[in-house]
Design goal:
The chain is mainly β. The chain is built from two helices and 36 strands. It has a 36-stranded mixed beta sheet that branches.
């Protein structure tokens, strides 16, 4: 029976020891050229060592003898094949130990392997030598021995190496201290990548899940029914997801994401810029810094304890929850709902067919159409146009000369601190039945504000411009 396994065409290595020397081991010499291995349901250990000649040693885990004729090991043109004459289960207690040159390409094809790769790439001296040899080279150069791992089931442990391509199907993978370009295709299974130096391209699908820790380089992710957590590290992150979840925590770099029916969390991260575009994405930004630009259809956007400018365009029922932001907030919200509070910068934007609450802002400039708009505790009203819909405005600290425009049968309930003067202008102000003012002095259309009196607190002057069929209720307190 020919046992076929994966191709390994990248450069890695992990920290499990190779099989010990044994007089019972079967030893076969190899050539220092490209190597292809076909194995299944056994333990494979690969050691990269420049001081020894390439060789394969096969032994049993209990140290007993491995007769050549019992497993039918053959080496032809540096292709290792195993013809199991005693049944597939007999490979379970075998260890295939390869000693290879660091510059030697190798491919491993198989399923349900327990694979370990170690090598001198993990040493500090080799890392220094790699840095010297890579000076002046572009990305992708300086990768002396690219390797490919194609693993179905089983587990792989890899430490060190560079320019790695890994294909996983329902397998478990651990990478540590790998370097340069890394490409992973994962279908199902789990993976963990830590302390990688270099760019990573990841394609995860069918419930593959993984963790990337401390990556120093750019990360490009494509996920379909996948899950990924990125912890720490630096570099740009670009992600595209469908029915997936991505968590980025403690990262320093840039972010660009798109997709649908997915979840995104960016936590405690320093982002030069974060861009997000998608449909039905549940997104959260918390405890970090950087400008955010989001274009969303449906889903939700939650931002709290964040420093940076926020630009939002949303539609189709997006829920917006923004709190404690140090920076400006610009928005265009159509068919949305939510709350915006504690913004230290200027808030300005457009609402349409929405239900939004704004409170404890530095200042606001807004045009709301056919919306339910609530504005509370905002000291500076730059501009407020209410086109249809309803406005609830209440502020104990509003200053200056706030001006509110009402049109298209809009209504407004306004509460302002005393002493106060309210003047209503425009075509709608002619119908005094649509105006109710209590606790403030009232000025009808065309009447002057009057002289300012010397008093401890000057009167607040509110001007309301009313188009026909609009209504306003103003209360001073």
């Amino acid at each position: 029976m020919m046992i076929n396994i994966a191709k390994l065409s990248a450069a890695f290595a992990l920290g499990l020891a190779v099989a010990p020397h044994s007089t019972m081991a079967l030893s076969l010499p190899l050539r220092p050229t490209d190597l292809t291995v076909h194995l299944e349901q056994c333990r494979v250990e690969i050691s990269m060592n420049a001081t020894q000649n390439p060789a394969l040693r096969v032994l049993r885990t209990d140290g007993s003898e491995v007769p050549l004729e019992s497993i039918g090991v053959s080496v032809s043109n540096n292709v290792v094949r195993v013809r199991d004459q005693e049944g597939q289960d007999s490979l379970n207690d075998l260890v295939f130990s390869f000693m290879l040159q660091p510059t030697q390409n190798f491919q491993i094809e198989g399923a349900n392997l327990d694979l370990t790769v170690t090598g001198p790439e993990t040493s500090d001296q080799v890392a220094k030598d790699d840095q010297k040899s890579d000076r002046g080279k572009s990305e992708g150069e300086g990768c002396v021995a690219p390797r490919l791992l194609n693993l179905v089931g089983g587990a792989a442990h890899v430490t060190g190496g560079g320019c790695t391509k890994i294909i996983l199907t329902d397998a478990d993978l651990t990478l540590d201290q790998t370097s340069q370009t890394l490409e992973i295709e994962a279908t199902g299974g789990r993976f963990r990548i830590q302390n990688h130096q270099g760019n990573i391209t990841l394609n995860a699908q069918e419930y593959a899940s993984g963790v990337i820790v401390g990556n120093q380089g750019d990360l490009e992710v494509t996920m379909t029914q996948g899950q990924l957590t990125v912890e720490g590290g630096t570099g740009a992150i670009k992600g595209q997801s469908e029915n997936s979840a991505l968590v980025v925590s403690g990262h320093n770099g840039r972010f660009e994401g798109s997709g649908s029916d997915s979840e995104l969390q960016i936590l405690n991260s320093l982002m030069a810029l974060a861009r997000l575009t998608g449909t039905r994405i549940l997104s959260q930004f918390s405890g970090g810094q950087g400008n955010i630009r989001a274009t969303l259809e449906g889903g939700s956007l939650s931002i709290d304890d964040w420093a940076g400018r926020i630009d939002l365009q949303s539609s189709r029922g997006t829920t917006v929850d923004i709190e404690a932001v140090e920076g400006d907030f610009a928005f265009s919200i159509v068919d949305g709902n939510g709350e915006v509070t504690d913004i230290t910068g200027h808030t300005r934007g457009i609402l349409a067919d929405s239900d939004m609450e704004f409170s404890r802002l530095k200042s606001i400039e807004i045009t709301a159409s056919a919306s339910q708009t609530s504005v509370k505790d905002v000291p500076q009203i730059t501009q407020m146009n209410i086109v249809g819909g309803h406005l609830d405005f209440e502020s104990s600290n509003v200053g200056g000369k706030p001006k509110i425009d009402l049109s298209a049968e809009a209504t407004a309930d306004i509460m302002i601190p005393q002493p106060c003067i309210v003047r209503c202008d425009g075509p709608g102000a002619k119908n005094l039945g649509n105006i109710r003012v209590s606790g403030c002095e009232f000025r009808a259309q065309g009447q002057p504000w009057g002289k300012k009196h010397r008093q401890a607190k000057p009167s607040l002057r509110l001007e309301v411009t009313m188009q026909e069929d609009t209504e306003v209720v103003v209360s001073g307190y």
